[in-house]
Amino acid sequence: MIDPLPKWIMKHYSKLWTKFKDKQFTHQEADNLLKITNTSIVLSRLKKFGWLELALNPNDSRKRLYKLKDPLKAVKEIGQ
Predict the structure, then answer these.
(1) pTM, entire model
(2) Full set of structural domains in the chain with CATH
(3) Exposed, middle or buried by CB within 10 Å (0-12, 13-18, 19+), for 50?
(4) Which residue in 12, 27, 56, 59 is a FRET match for 47, CA 20 to 30 A apart?
């Protein structure tokens, strides 16, 4: 289930989507792009609202890989 994002999270989602689109990325890559102190909180909220999927890194199971949901699909899911 997807919920609408608060404005402050949507700004970060927009930056992430512009850079990564539907490709996987790491926490470090997100941190380098956003340049904020609370990247973990942003990623956690995106996951909570259903806009972010995560998987274990096959090369290092201690790390995660993130993937954003397509905004068009997300908006359609919100409307259902």
Answers:
(1) 0.91
(2) 7-79 (1.10.10.10)
(3) middle
(4) 59
